[in-house]
Amino acid sequence: MTGELASASGGGAALASIPSPSEGVWELGPVPIRAYALAIIAGIVLACWISEKRWVARGGRPGEVLDIAVWAVPFGIVGGRIYHVLTTPQPYFGEGGDPLKAFAIWEGGLGIWGAIAFGGVGAWIACRRMGIPLPAFADAIAPGLLVAQAVGRLGNWFNQELFGGPSDLPWALEIDREHRPLEYLDVATFHPTFLYELLWNLAAAAVVVWADRRFRLGHGRAFALYVALYCTGRLWIELLRTDPANEFFGVRLNVFTCLVVGLAAVAYMVVLRGRPREVLDRRGDDGDTRPGQRPAGTAAVPVTSADAEAADRAGDDDHRPANGS
After folding, report:
1. Alpha-carbon distance 305 to 205, whole Å?
2. Distance between CA atoms of 283 and 144, rounded to whole angstroms?
3. What's the CA gap between 52 and 56, in Å, rounded?
């Protein structure tokens, strides 16, 4: 934080503000190291680590998360870029735009909706090849995805992008003049929407972990809860942003996306309420089985609530993650 006074909307002044990084790219010889890319990579690594802990605790084999990530991550990156370009085409195909910039992922611009949709396709392909039920896998990775999204928002901070409207709050974000919208060139501080979403995602991850343990969610319900919580936070954060976006009836496109996807996730949870969590039955490479697993086969089978609770308790005792995930 800095104690410098910063002008804001309405002629007010912030007693303190969050400074933006002076640069987001470092030259390592001929190779540019971009903070945005580092944030995305760090988020992916954390998501894989957390998901591995949860997947093994639920009865999966060690290493399967990484095997599926090999498919899901490239699909997700491509899907995220496609969504961004299709919903914000002006910088690439509008007047004065550069179509080749559509491929410049390292400069920022990944739409989470496309990333999740295409990443889900990649995960589905991998799960089918490995004989893994996709809903059970999705439940295991849900909190890790939220953590990855939180870390990824740091890239927006380094790029000084996707901030909100003018603000004189103590935690307002300082934006350099060259990154400000034309209508706000004389405004120095803005809502740090990157920080709002970062904190919201971490809180949502904690809620998903708690609800998953408390209600023993299964059949994709933990993943649906992740989607519903993310859409709720993204809805109000989206309304604060000032970056250019396509609109329908004067409302940003992503607001409509949040409403539709979020309501669909809630409907999914309601339809599948009360179903006991699957018990995964996957042998380790050495032929041993974990407590709560059947002796043979690789399918997820429905069991009674009592059996599910016993299996979960055994999994928690043997494979409780150090970070509480």
Report:
1. 25
2. 24
3. 6
Question: Residue 204: exposed, middle, or buried by beta-carbon count in 10 A (0-12, 13-18, 19+)?
Answer: buried
* Lookup: tokens for 207: 């809620």
Beta pairing partners, 28: 31
Helix (H, G, I), strand (E, B) or coil at 247: strand
280 in Cβ contact with 236 (< 8 Å): no
Under 8 Å between Cβ of 99 and 158: no
The pLDDT value given to residue 283: 57
Name which of 321, 142, 139 is nearest 229 in CA terms. Answer: 142
Q: Which residues lie across from 71 on neighbouring strands?
A: none
Q: Which residue ranges in the chain fall short of pLDDT 50? A: 1-14, 285-308, 310-312, 314-325
User: Cβ(108)–Cβ(159) under 8 Å?
Assistant: yes
Q: Sign of dihedral through CA atoms 106, 109, 115, 117?
A: negative
Beta bridge partners of 189: 174
Strand partners, 7: 13
Question: Which DSSP symbol is given to 20?
Answer: P
Q: Judging by beta carbons within 10 Å of its beta carbon (0-12, 13-18, 19+), is residue 39 exposed, middle or buried?
A: buried
Which token pair is 315? 């999994």
DSSP state of 166: B
Question: What's the N-to-C CA distance of the chain in angstroms?
Answer: 31
Angle at alpha carbon of residue 146, lines to 258 and 245, rounded to 5°: 35
CA–CA gap between residue 201 and residue 189 (Å, rounded): 23
pLDDT for 165-207, tens place per residue? 999 999 999 999 999 999 999 999 999 999 999 999 999 999 9
DSSP 105: G
Domain boundaries, the chain: 6-319
Q: Which helix (H) or strand (E) holds 31?
A: strand 31-34
